[in-house]
């Protein structure tokens, strides 16, 4: 968000507790008394997705009378969201858009906003508050600070900082571990940690990473009463997995202007989204939880099959559309998906990925992909391909590489899956050439830029990228995967997606 978006002077009043009462009747507003809401959830990573997804579900619960589940939002990096929402008393507009309609709803479930770098003590106070019974996270894949092998990146400077300064943390790992240590010392039961990011087995993955961090912390505090927090986290703290699904494009200034006109009040940061919304959660909440299922959340014993279907069919095709769309000159998902070649490719990609899903889990991939096709065609969202393209090195392992490996192991076709990896490499190389410099970003950008600047032969390039990103590390089929990706990269280098598609008969 640009620096002037929260400081613009207009003749329109700002959305707030006062002005919300005067909004047009067509706009849904909180039907509950926000002054009676008790904070029960701390959310780390208050971006647009959280505000379009979990915060909306919690808003429904508050409206049903479950007043002890207000959200304290925490930004781990930027103050932008706090600066936008605090003058609005935490209120914001959710714009649910389809190709022909737009429905506006004001969400009131976020009752406080904190910025961790400004006041880590306030964040720890919220986490240690006995009323806090759930901590949710949407911090993006890269913020889990995993090394190439999947374990904790103990050499990361922020991890080193948090180990050396446990009472002044920077990372989610540091905040969660310090808060759980303080709660244990005070005799306060632990909160449940609910990961909502696109990680495989996200609850188990975060659990493992946090135990690794806490073990390093225990080793560094050998004479402290805090020793043993790793064992406490390993055996006393619940980490249910979840699967989240809702498309949330970035908000533009045109969106802000349109929403302000509809409201008759200025909203510094409304959120755009689609009508579809899904949340599947493992039901493991020892300290209690909202009655989410009353509002469409699916509570299950095992979220794994749902997660795999979403990662491999929605997220995998989203990455394909992003990279092939960028290489084909398409700025948004709906325009890329309307390209007959890309649409045909996505159908074939789904056909490759579907056999990797379990057959006995009650999934319906055909219905799911039909729904995805409708969602990707939504012209009202204007979901930017460059937004989806960010952080490919962190996203592709679970979205594409896992399916490709399973296809190799099963001896089934996988030529479309491997083109997605090649398209990511080609799109990274195109920045500063056919794509704008910094058009999208990746945690490995410095190393990727240096590597791709060498213009090595395709096979050497793909091998080096796999080494750098840790793709298929130590897997028996790794070399085969590299060779298949390299063939596509040769085609992309020669004539872009046109030749790559032609080689697939598209």
UniProtKB/TrEMBL annotation:
Residues annotated as domain Mannitol dehydrogenase C-terminal: 302-487
Keywords: NAD, Oxidoreductase
Keyword Transcription: no
UniProt xrefs under Gene3D superfamilies: N-(1-d-carboxylethyl)-l-norvaline Dehydrogenase, domain 2 (1.10.1040.10), NAD(P)-binding Rossmann-like Domain (3.40.50.720)
GO biological process, one term: mannitol metabolic process
PROSITE patterns: MANNITOL_DHGENASE
Stretches assigned to the Mannitol dehydrogenase N-terminal domain: 40-293
InterPro entries the UniProt entry points to: 6-PGluconate_DH-like_C_sf, 6PGD_dom2, Mannitol_DH, Mannitol_DH/Oxidoreductase, Mannitol_DH_C, Mannitol_DH_CS, Mannitol_DH_N, NAD(P)-bd_dom_sf
Gene Ontology molecular function, alphabetical: oxidoreductase activity, acting on the CH-OH group of donors, NAD or NADP as acceptor
Record-linked Pfam families: Mannitol_dh, Mannitol_dh_C
Recorded superkingdom: Bacteria
UniProt name for this protein: Mannitol dehydrogenase family protein
Source species: Mesorhizobium ciceri
């Amino acid at each position: 968000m640009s620096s002037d978006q929260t400081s613009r002077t207009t003749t329109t009043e700002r959305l707030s507790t006062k002005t919300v009462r005067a909004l047009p009747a067509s706009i849904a507003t909180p039907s509950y008394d926000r002054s009676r809401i008790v904070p029960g959830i701390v959310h780390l990573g208050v971006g647009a997705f959280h505000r379009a997804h979990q915060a909306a579900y919690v808003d429904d619960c508050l409206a049903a009378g479950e007043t002890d589940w207000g959200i304290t939002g925490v930004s781990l990096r930027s103050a932008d969201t706090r600066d936008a929402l605090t003058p609005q008393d935490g209120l914001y507009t959710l714009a649910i858009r389809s190709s022909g309609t737009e429905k506006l709803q004001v969400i009131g479930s976020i009752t406080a906003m904190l910025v961790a770098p400004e006041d880590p003590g306030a964040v720890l106070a919220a986490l240690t508050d006995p009323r806090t019974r759930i901590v949710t996270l949407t911090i993006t894949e890269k913020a889990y600070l995993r090394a190439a092998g999947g374990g904790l990146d103990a050499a990361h400077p922020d991890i080193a900082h948090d180990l050396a300064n446990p009472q002044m943390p920077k990372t989610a790992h540091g905040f969660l571990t310090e808060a759980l240590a303080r709660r244990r010392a005070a005799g306060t039961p632990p909160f449940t940690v609910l990961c909502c990011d696109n990680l495989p087995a996200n609850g188990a993955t975060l659990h493992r990473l946090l135990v690794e961090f806490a073990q390093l912390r225990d080793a560094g505090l050998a004479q402290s009463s805090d020793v043993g927090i790793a064992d406490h986290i390993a055996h006393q703290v619940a980490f249910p997995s979840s699967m989240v699904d809702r498309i949330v494009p970035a908000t533009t200034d045109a969106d802000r202007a349109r929403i302000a006109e509809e409201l008759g009040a200025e909203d510094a940061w409304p959120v755009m989204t689609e009508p579809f919304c899904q949340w599947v959660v493992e039901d493991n909440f020892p300290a209690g939880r909202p009655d989410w299922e009353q509002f469409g959340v699916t509570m299950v014993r095992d979220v794994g099959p749902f997660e795999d279907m979403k990662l491999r069919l929605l997220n995998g095709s989203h990455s394909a559309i992003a990279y092939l769309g960028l290489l084909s000159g398409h700025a948004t998902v709906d325009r890329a998906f309307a390209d007959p070649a890309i649409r045909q490719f996505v159908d074939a990609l789904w056909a490759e990925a579907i056999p990797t899903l379990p057959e006995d889990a009650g999934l319906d991939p055909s219905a799911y992909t039909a729904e995805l096709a409708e969602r990707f065609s939504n012209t009202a969202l204007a979901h930017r391909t460059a937004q989806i393209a960010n952080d490919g090195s962190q996203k592709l392992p679970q979205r594409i590489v896992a399916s490709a490996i399973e296809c190799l192991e099963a001896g089934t076709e996988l030529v479309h899956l491997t083109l997605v990896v090649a398209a990511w490499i080609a799109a990274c190389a195109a920045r500063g050439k056919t794509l704008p410099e910094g058009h999208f970003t990746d945690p490995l950008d410095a190393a990727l830029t240096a590597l791709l600047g060498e213009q090595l032969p395709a096979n050497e390039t793909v091998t080096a990228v796999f080494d750098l990103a840790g793709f298929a590390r130590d897997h028996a089929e790794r070399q085969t995967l590299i060779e298949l990706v390299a063939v596509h990269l040769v085609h992309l280098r020669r004539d872009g997606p046109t030749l790559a598609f032609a080689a697939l008969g598209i």
